[in-house]
Amino acid sequence: MKLIASRLAVVALFLTSLTILIWGSVQSSDEVLKPPLVPVPATFFGMHIHRAAVSTPWPPVSFKAWRLWDTHTTWVQLEPRKGDWDWRMLDRTVNVAQAHGVELLYTMGRTPQWASARPQEMGENPNAQPGGMAEPKNLEDWRNYVRTVATRYKGRIKAYEVWNEPNLPNFYSGTPQAMVDLAREAYTVLKQVDPEVIVVSPSAVGPTGLPWLEKYLELGGGKYADVIGYHFYVRGQEPEAMLDFIRQVRDITSKYGVAEKPLWNTEAGWLQPYRIDPEDGPGYVARAYVLNWAGGVTRFYWYAWDNQGARVRMTESDETTVTSSAKAYAEIQQWLIGARMDSLQQKDGIWISQLSRDGANSWIVWTPDRNARFDVPKSFDVNEIRSLSGEIVKFPGGKIEIGPAPVLLEKSVR
Q1: What stretches of 153-302 show up as alpha helix (H) in DSSP?
Q2: Cβ within 8 Å of residue 167, ≥6 positions away
Q3: Which of 61, 244, 336, 352 could pair covalently with 330 via S-S, beta carbons 3.0-4.6 A apart?
Q4: Coil/strand/helix, residue 306
Q5: pLDDT at residue number 31
């Protein structure tokens, strides 16, 4: 993803430096994070699927939340000509989700050319439709779009996101103020149609997303969201780098009085052109979910199940055969869902997350380094080691070998 401008990059660098001064380095030898005090819900595990309505078989791996981006269901596809609605793809998608008991997040945006404030404008994406990055020139057209979708799918689509990555010119070319105006109108209309619906703020991404989010909240955009969204991509870095982004976003939301609102990672993964060793994929998936929850993110939509351009892939090219990363996605759910994460500590390069469930404790342990010896404290009182493949071996006592793929230390009641 590209930077918007060097000026914004300088601002982002300043914010990064300031946050590190406030929070301390992730590599601090005695850092302890305090995650949310509630058990991890199943909806924490979200997913993107591009073609489930037409070709991709439904995943055999469980998840409870699906974000409808890159599913050919944006405004430009729903209403290509004013008043001429095409519901076929979104109807099929919603029906598939309902059949599998999955909660939907619909992302609004991609203005049709007829409604665009700049109908001839083209971004750098050769597949984008002219005018799609601009805000609508007439707010009534936007209100009608939001109202029509919300009314048709009332009770079936329970969450709406105002826009995708508005700090990137390939997705949005307007001002933060114009986006606040869109969010205000969308929030008003959505709550009129269904007061129970969840409204997610526009989800910015990357270093330039930080100053964009700050300006958006400074202009009052936080009033028109139940949830703050962000895309915590870290490009070619390891999952631990997500914590810095999460902290910076939380610092900004605190500054503008919306820190009490849930924080969702509505899109993240590892994409081109960054090369990731396929063997590291399972560890990246598991660590990303542990770290996001520990940082205070309460929903994380992985990108993506059937994206063959991803560097950490969930399926092979047939979009059916699951990878070891997909198996790790399933396994980490078994470790986390229903458990409370009491702490996440990083000391001397070793990360330790303590979980509690039904009065019993367990520990997730890893190190980003290739090999390390971990002396398991006797106080852990464990007798099994569980890997991301689901394999269980007896704990031999004393020190164990650990690496980038987390393991779960637990006491079996079998």
Answers
A1: 176-193, 206-218, 242-255, 281-295
A2: 4, 8, 204, 205, 206, 208, 209, 212, 213
A3: 61
A4: coil
A5: 67
d(CA 115, CA 75): 10
Helix axes 281-295, 324-336, angle to 10 degrees: 30
DSSP state for residue 113 in the 8-state scheme? G
Secondary structure percentages of the chain, helix, strand, coil, to 5: 35, 20, 45
Tell which residue, 294, 192, 205, has the closest CA to residue 243: 294
Q: Are 304 and 69 in contact (CB under 8 A)?
A: no
The pLDDT score that the predictor gives to residue 30 is 59
Q: Are 310 and 49 in contact (CB under 8 A)?
A: no
Reply yes or no: is the peptide bond before residue 326 cis, omega within 30 of 0. Answer: no
Among 138, 58, 146, CA closest to 95: 58
Tokens standing for residue 364: 């997730």
Check if the beta carbon of residue 290 is closer than 8 Å to that of residue 332.
yes
Ramachandran angles phi, psi of 394, nearest 5° = -70, 135
For tokens 């405004």, name the residue: 75
CA angle 23/29/30 to nearest 5° reads 70
DSSP category for residue 279: G
Instruction: Lay out the sheet containing 263-268: strands in order across.
Output: 198-200, 159-161, 103-107, 65-68, 45-47, 297-302, 263-268, 228-231, 204-205
The residue with tokens 């660098």 is 13
Name, in order, each residue with C-beta under 8 angstroms of 405's C-beta and a sequence gap of 6 or more: 282, 283, 286, 328, 366, 387, 388
Three-state SS for 187?
Answer: helix
Report which secondary-structure segment, H or E, holds 168: none
Could you give the 3-state DSSP secondary structure of residue 148?
Answer: helix
Tens digits of residue pLDDT in 225-275 = 999 999 999 999 999 999 999 999 999 999 999 999 999 999 999 998 888
DSSP bridge pairs for 346: 31, 351
List the chain residues with pLDDT less than 70.
1-31, 413-414
Q: Which amino acid is residue 341, in one-letter code?
A: M
User: What whole-number distance in Å separates Cα of residue 93 and Cα of residue 77?
Assistant: 14
Identify the structural domains of the chain with CATH numbers, from first to last.
6-28+40-340 (3.20.20.80), 344-410 (2.60.40.1180)
Q: What are phi and psi of 211, to 5 degrees?
A: -65, -30
- The CB density around residue 208, as the number of other CB atoms within 10 Å, is 22
Mean pLDDT computed over every residue of the chain = 92
Closest CA to 47 of 71, 70, 67: 67
